[in-house]
Design goal:
This protein is mainly beta and 504 residues long. The chain contains four helices and 36 strands. Strands 10, 13, 14, 16, 19 and 21 form a six-stranded mixed sheet that branches. β33 and β34 form a beta hairpin. The termini are far apart. About 3% of the residues have low confidence.
């Protein structure tokens, strides 16, 4: 006698409301023993705290109405009177993301079309645009399909390069927005900002965008009215008023048309979402100076248990060690910041030696976490780094010894001069100076000798008068490890020489 049953494939169902109808499709095989000809099947549900209603639990093919989110287990049992077998099916019910349109195509926009230089302040969320004009999209001119016609100025051969647009919208719970999708109509190029932060750039050059920056390419045909899709990081949303600011640029001052429209859609959820960490920009510091690290995290305060937000830094890579000081508490915090429900964090980081470091910031709500990497370049070519390399800790505390104007070896070169020259501030013989001038056998050339420091450029100046004017006689870069070098110059009747290291 043998009997086998199969409950079916596990399911994941997204829903906007409860109950959810679950389709159950089981299979049973039997050896048809004539002594036990009848096989009974029964569906059952494992969680007594969740309501479930079967259409017919005794049928292999049936439906069940399920009144609860989460993972649930259904069991199919087959019994032929002699043997009983069972198999389980897992069904996960998830709440479907809620869709919301924040800005629809054809919405009304505040706009400025006078060709003025607005700098960057107009991009900010709280910028006062009440004196700007207002009109529905599409906005533009030259395509005959605009709902709002823009001005290009009084000269068709010298039209305005840039037009500005702003639209405000409300967000009640920004932490519940899990994704944002934008779509842009632009002719020719555009850049868009959410609450002052750039979120997209289309058909525009890299670098800073000015009011007179031209778009990269001329747009024509269907591309003039096509919506270009973009993904936007919802971390930039704030509770209450939010503002999309867009600048549209022409490819030339004689361009025949301009077009603009924009839409913004989001998906949200009332389930627990991972904390959102505002992206970092790479940081650079002059080692060994410390640097302040600031973070901004938004969280939905879920789950209710424990319902706490923990934030911490983790070391990933770097040539040395990192020490973090928590500014708020004023105590040493070895790579860790952890304060419940704190959405902003600040700490000061110091590095044991120069180089490039990578830190990871982790935000954890007790159930889900998010991570962002931060790259820090600790540059060791600063005067402070040079001081640490040449003076003891005790000497570093004495400005008369290690300060920029001090001259501890009494060679006439200050520490600042020694730093620029790459010489030893404690060795009077180590200095920037011409050591020897030699005339060749033919009496036509001079060889000027001096000692070079690594990674330095030198310039030899000459003049027939000690008071100048001085002209460049020759230039050279030092060998990788420095050392003795020479510059060969033509011999003159009377020559005075100066050796210098050019500034940046």
């Amino acid at each position: 006698m043998c009997i086998r049953d199969r409950a079916g494939v596990d399911q994941v169902i997204e829903t906007k409301s409860l109950p959810v109808s679950v389709h159950l499709s089981g299979m049973v095989s039997d050896d048809t023993n004539p002594d036990f000809p009848t096989v009974k099947t029964e569906w059952s549900f494992s969680n007594n705290q969740i309501t479930v209603m079967f259409a017919d639990s005794g049928q292999l093919q049936t439906t069940a109405e399920l009144f609860g989110l989460g993972k649930h287990t259904f069991r199919l049992t087959a019994d032929d009177g002699q043997y009983t077998f069972s198999d389980e099916l897992t069904v996960e019910i998830k709440r479907a993301p809620m869709e919301r349109t924040f800005i629809t195509a054809g919405s009304e926009w505040r706009y400025l079309d006078n060709g003025s230089n607005q700098g960057t302040k107009w991009r900010a969320r709280l910028f006062d645009d009440t004196k700007w004009k207002a009109g529905p999209a599409q906005l533009g001119y030259g395509d005959n399909g605009e709902k709002t016609e823009l001005s290009f100025g009084g000269n068709s051969s010298n039209k305005h390069v840039t037009s500005y647009f702003r639209h405000a919208f409300e967000v009640t719970t920004p932490t519940g927005v899990i994704s944002l999708e934008a779509a842009l109509v632009r002719d020719d190029g555009a850049a868009a900002y959410l609450n002052g932060k750039e979120i997209l750039r289309s058909n525009m050059p890299q670098g800073n965008i000015r009011y007179d920056t031209l778009a990269s390419l001329t747009v024509g045909g269907e591309e003039e009215s096509a919506f270009q899709p973009f993904t936007v990081d919802p971390i930039l949303l704030v509770e209450g008023k939010n503002v999309i600011a867009v600048e549209v640029h022409q490819t030339s001052r004689t361009s025949s048309d301009i077009s603009f429209d924009f839409e913004l859609r989001g998906k949200g959820s009332d389930e627990n979402q991972p904390p959102k960490v505002l992206p970092f920009n790479d940081l650079t510091l002059a080692w060994p100076s410390p640097i302040k690290l600031e973070v901004q995290v938004s969280d939905d305060a879920l789950p209710s248990t424990p319902g706490q937000l923990a934030m911490r830094w983790k070391f990933k890579s770097g040539p040395g060690t990192v020490t973090l000081i928590d500014d708020r508490l004023g105590v040493t915090a070895p790579m860790h910041i952890g304060h419940s429900r704190r959405h902003r964090g600040a700490t000061t980081a110091s590095f044991s030696e120069p180089g490039t470091y990578v830190l990871i910031f982790v935000a954890d709500d007790g159930k889900a976490q998010s991570m962002r990497e931060l790259v820090i370049h600790a540059e060791g070519n600063s005067f402070a780094a040079w001081q640490h390399a040449h003076f003891s800790l005790a000497e570093l505390g004495q400005a008369i010894v290690s300060g920029p104007d001090a001259d501890p070896d009494n060679d006439g070169m200050s520490n600042q001069d020694e730093y620029i020259a790459g010489t030893d501030p404690k060795d009077a013989k180590s200095r920037l100076e011409i050591q020897m001038i030699q005339v060749d056998a033919a009496g036509e050339q001079l060889s000027v000798y001096f000692h070079s420091a690594p990674k330095r450029s030198y310039r030899l100046l000459q003049s027939p008068n000690v008071l100048g004017p001085w002209q460049t006689a020759g230039e050279l870069n030092s060998p990788p490890k420095g050392g003795p070098v020479k510059l060969v110059v033509p011999l003159g009747e009377i020559q005075f020489f100066r050796l210098e290291i050019p500034g940046d």
